Amino acid sequence: QVQLVESGGGLVQPGGSLRLSCLASGFIFSIYDMNWHRQAPGKERELVASISSGGTSTVYADSVKGRFTISRDNFKNTVYLQMNSLKPEDTAVYYCSAGLAATRYWGQGTQVTVSS
């Protein structure tokens, strides 16, 4: 069965850092593009960052560019999101997803709260 399991969320002060991980299983991880999304209360789900299957290309939302870094380890079937200089507006549930053509897999989400 396909599984995407996020970890690393929690409560952090403004200006702090968190590293999210998403461990994948049940599909050929190395040929899928991987993505991080977030959804804040009352807001639509937003694409935060994407990384190509080989890890050579990345894209970021303007709101996180320069602060967040997406990476992947195809030997560990894991995608990461390093989040630095966190702001209260980064507070959201963060989800990872895997995509290939019409196929899309989703994780369960992990809460990130940025507050003093």
Helix residue percentage:
under 10%
Shape: globular
Helix/strand order: EEEEEEEEEEE
- The total of beta strands comes to 11
Please identify the structural class as seen in this structure. Answer: mainly beta
Give the biggest sheet: 7 strands, mixed
User: How far is the first residue's CA from the last residue's CA?
Assistant: 40 Å
> Averaged pLDDT, please?
98
* Spans of at least 5 consecutive residues with low confidence: none
Gyration radius from CA atoms, angstroms: 13 Å
The proportion of strand residues reads over 45%
Oligomer description: single chain
How many DSSP H or I helices?
A: 0
Briefly summarize what is shown.
Helix content is 0%, strand content 53%. It is an all-beta fold and 116 residues long.
Helix and strand topology:
Layout: E1 3-7, E2 10-12, E3 18-25, E4 33-39, E5 46-51, E6 58-60, E7 68-73, E8 78-83, E9 92-100, E10 103-106, E11 110-114
Parallel strand pairs: 2-11
Antiparallel strand pairs: 1-3, 3-8, 4-5, 4-9, 5-6, 7-8, 9-10, 9-11
